[in-house]
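Justification of computing resources. Each target in the renewal requires a structure prediction run like the one illustrated here; the chain below, 122 residues long, is used simply to show the kind of job we budget for.
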Amino acid sequence: MLLIIKKKLKYTTRILIFAIGFCHTSFAQSDQLKVANDQSQTTTKLVINKMDKRQLMDDKVNINTASEEELAEKLNGVGLKKAQLIVLHRKKFGGFKSIEHLQDVPGIGLGFIEKNCEKLTY
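Resulting structure tokens:
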């Protein structure tokens, strides 16, 4: 009887050791997956941030280089006529030294600049 108990105990011990080893491997793999997932999320955030910056730059309108069409398309309150006036003023006076100098163009006031300030660059 004692011999049977010893054999069962050895068998049970082996099963426990196997189960512990299996669980340890699963936890290690789980940790590796978590680290890989964290790294993937960090990389994704970096890519998105770079895309956001590029998109912000794409949305900006440089008043010293933009075409009439670009000015009319991207700025609020600017049609083709007002865009032509901006380009004409730019050519005549050699470009704008600040965003506020847009007020020198007939038909453009402070309200226009306030509405479009986030889109404008020079």
